Fold each of these.
Amino acid sequence: MKREITLNVNGEEWTVAVAPNETLLEVLRDRVGIKSPKIGCERGDCGSCTVILDGKTVRSCLVLAVEADGHGVLTVEGLSRDGITGLQQAFLDKNSFQCGFCAPGVILTASELLAKNPHPSEHEVKEALAGNLCRCTGYTPIIDAVLEVAERGGVEDDG
Amino acid sequence: MAELKYVGSKATRIDGLPKVSGSATFVDDIDFGPGLLHAAIVESPHAHARIVSIDKSEAEAMPGVVRVVTGDDFPYRFGLYMKDRHIFAMDRVRFVGEQVAAVIARDLKTAQRAAALVRVKYEELPALFDPMEAVGEGACLLHPDMCDCERVPWFFPEEDTNIAHCRRTRKGDVGRGFEEADVVLEDTYTVPRYAHCAIEPHVVVGLYDQSGRLTLWSASQSPHTQRNLFAETFAPLGLSHKDIRVVTPYVGGGFGGKAGVTMEILGAALAVAAKGRPVKLRWTREQEFYNTYQRQAVTAKLKVGAKKDGTLTAIEHVLYWDAGAYVEYGANVVNAVGLSATGPYRVPNVKIDSYCIYTNLPPGGPYRGFGYSEFHFGLESHMTRIAHELGIDAVEFRKRNAIREGDTLPYGAKMNPSGLAETIDRAAEAIEWGSEVEPSGPGKAVGKGMALMWKAPAMPPNAASAAFLKFSEDGSVNVTVSGMEIGQGYMTAMAQIAAEVLTVPPERIRVETPDTDRNPYEWQTVGSHVTWGCGNAVRDAAIEARDRIFDVVNRARGVPVDALYLEGEKVKSRLDPGFELRLRDFVIYGIQMEDGTFRGGPIMGSGMFMPEFTSALSDPATSQGGHPNVHYTVGAAGIVLEIDRETGKVEILKAALAVDVGKAINPDLVEGQITGGLLQGLATVLYEDMRFDESGRLLNPNFTDYKIPTAMDTPREMIPIIVEVPQPDGPFGARGVGEHTMIPAAPMVANAVEDAVGVRIKSMPITAEKIALAIRDAST
């Protein structure tokens, strides 16, 4: 029943035997030992399992592991490998997170946004983050950090 | 007070880096190896039924199943304030989703498949979903034996009823108060049930090893309270507190939902049942909605009298709480409201009856606000309405009646210092109270609303905190405490308090999550009391460490202790400006004397705190005589919103909350509590709502159907305002703030809606649909 798949996780090749109904989230957490994508709702509502698959964010609870065969996965562990990014630093400086459970998903979603749209408006930031639920912060300090990074990026670009 | 260096300043959260780098470990992230077992629950499909039989043979025969456990295996009662629950339903089930049995298996999918094979025969009983029906004539009794349940001395179940407790408070003479009034306004307000919706579901892993040691890794706000409840519940097995260890890593949101013990009792029982192997139980999002605590629904009947000049003469507040199937924790929510349902007002004549009523819905329990959000909805709606009847400005009316330091509280004790008047002024100013705002277009209307709030921690009078603190070779510090970092910034606040005393910067202080084997006692992280209570313990520990430092320096260098002080991680002397010793040079190895010997030793400190002035003993008929609450935190909030008259859709233009925190240990984190709590409160009034069908089944146990706010739902502008009138017994003057921030949200929206479109909505939530229909009804 099981099928062997190959995943590139944060730059490392992994070959794992998976059942057809196993999700990417289960495989990442239980086989690869990548724990930053969290189990929050298992139906794609909350965004805490967000990972970047070939450059695009996905809900890893809604992706079957076999679908990810041969593809590349980036998680916050990979993002932080050589030290935290400017975006993560901004979240840190602004005390953006409280319990931190949603943080990995929010960080990846915001990273994807800034990669595609370096100068988003406040509305675009809110829209991009709308699929990542946070119950603690009221979102304000998260949105502020993303906007600040976008502004800083703007200054660098202009220079 | 001397100038403060660390307390009162923004500091980066000490849990910030673990959280932004993906390193923060939550319970579900801990690996237990291939021996880990998983459990699935067999749940009641009925709201109220007798269990006739349970046939587990088919499930037990399934390959991979280790054991099937039922109530017969663990016929023990448990509960925080009243032991009215069994671990598994025993003779009857009392809500849809209640645990009847559990399957332990080698993997989760096998456990789930086997759980479906457990055959339970039920005989349905009449179910009660409406608390008013449950207290009516001839209602069936849900807990006929409730009066035999062990409980705290301040609960009073009423024999042969479904009333598990009623808190009665009487002050003055309400009859006379209403006679003296020029205006008396009477009405009923209703508030439905709500869900906490922490993004991390409840999860527990239990291991009962071959040596008889029980360890629980738990997503909890309450490690020591959990250990205590496990020890009490499993005492028949010969387990004592020292044999039980509760480890609580980072927790992904609590809001009260992870206080006390809910599903964790199953984790402990399943571990005992599968001795020698760890067992994991993780709630699904659905279970998270229907089988943890829910915020209780309430029907509140309110009568308020006032004189022409605006002086309040009497408040009568009778609250009927739908407390659910078990009230082991929820009854204390009801109790807290029964003491404080006047709100922050000076009122000479008070009558409060707060009824805790059993129903066949999931158990009620603590939720950020602890009953205060619920009663403030009616109370603060009412205050605006009565001001209007008197022709007095709603802010002016509140200022005239605002409680002051030394005023007599409803139960006889005195009000603590507070900056209530200042919070009112500043919130009103922030929303430009009294000035008109132009709607953004035709068909739109803008309204403003205000609401006050107060809240005290509700806890046993002897709820205590303790702290250990130790230095390392380089002069860095570890603080061990057992409050939980549930996002509020507790760890950082504790580090800042220790930093202030020891002059060691917060970034050189480590605070870790608790382990009951190693960390000293903390009752629970609830009630917005840990910054205050545990903060006092940490300050005490730091002072003890400082005293030891001074003693060592005195013995080694002969400088009088009272001449010594700390500055910049050094010991200095007021007698000799040139004298200084770096802490890092002696806090472990001591100070060397001329003869080569040393003085000193590893420096550490311990601290403890208990509010020794509180008592829950009072006259049950009036609540007079005790001192049940440590202090109230007060505040005022204002909102500006725009409504589309056609659709009823509300857009929040501005929301401001001024709260008197005594002293903001870290203002940035206080602001985080304000913005987060306000949005959580706004969601309860604008759209959240638990819906049950006629058989008691929850219809919306997921985030598709139970909407919580997204980033798109934030108000255009949020204005956090910090007021600081010190709390004399708080660390550096601090008092609690976390829960309070959602309390005024609902009534200020109700008041602003009326201001905008002239309709008064008295039942939550105030959805767009409700507003649109009310506008239509008012115009026909």
Amino acid sequence: MKPSFRLDQHPRRWPQPLSAPPAGYFEQLPTRVMAQVDALARPWPLAAWLQQAPAYVRTGLASTVLLGTFAASLWLGAGPTPHPTAAASLDGVPREELVDYLASEARLDLTDLAELPAGSLGITTHYLRPSPPELTDALDAQPTDEATLL
Amino acid sequence: MEDHEILAKFQDPASRNLAFNQLVRKYQQKVYWHVRKMVIDHADADDLTQDVFVKVWKHLGDFRQDAQLFTWIYRIATNECLIFLKSKRRKFFLPLNDVGAELAAKLEADPAVAGDEIELKLQKAILRLPDKQRLVFNLRYYDEMPYEQMAEVTGTSVGALKASYHHAVRKIEEYVTAADVQGYSSGDAN
């Protein structure tokens, strides 16, 4: 029967148990590492400058960037200018033009002008706001050709 | 160049590259072998060694000198090894044993070990240990690192390290004995 294996009795491989790296490896390694380190520093000179800058400069810059971002988000988040409502747009149109348009383009006749079949009187009032004398004048101005009546 | 000289020259941008070059030359072999014993393969060890020194470059300016420079570098190397081995397992979605099998296969291909049956069994037994325990074993058995320094490198207490090393030795001896007996029995059968 074979005796048990004892680690303290086994000759330790010194200095290392595995095969050596390729010849010249350790002569070349520092050069390869320095090349990597140089590549880190080169493309971003600003980053290298930041890395070398004192802590208070970096803190100040970071605070400025943060505040600037906050201010920009507040300014941009103010929201777009609201579009004027249709009612407000119509308010800008002179009343005479509105009546002329309705009479000519919409082919309204006396009956329509006299009794406007609006579902909501409130809307009609808001759009035209006819006073009684104005309405009478409008009616009187219409042709009384019976062909259009009906 | 002494460590304090390297650190002082590194703070000066004019001599930073020279200081770092000296640092790499001073510690490259220790870092390389520490990593190589964990990952076995030379190409992997080469990549990791370079990664370690690049990290040292990036953070040496912040080194507070509350520990020895070498301990600090070793800690970076240790973390890189453990992260590498962990990512290897996750990348291939393999259970633990398969990554161990992969490392064992690289070991069998290593000419320094392949020709020595007992040494190969020993190295395979070491590979079977959990990564952190394997690390402790390597640091103590091959690097003869004092437990107090090992505690700084691993962030583990001295007592826990001693227990871990003791158990590692026992596991290795049991494994090699069993492998030896198996081989002896097979020889008898033949």
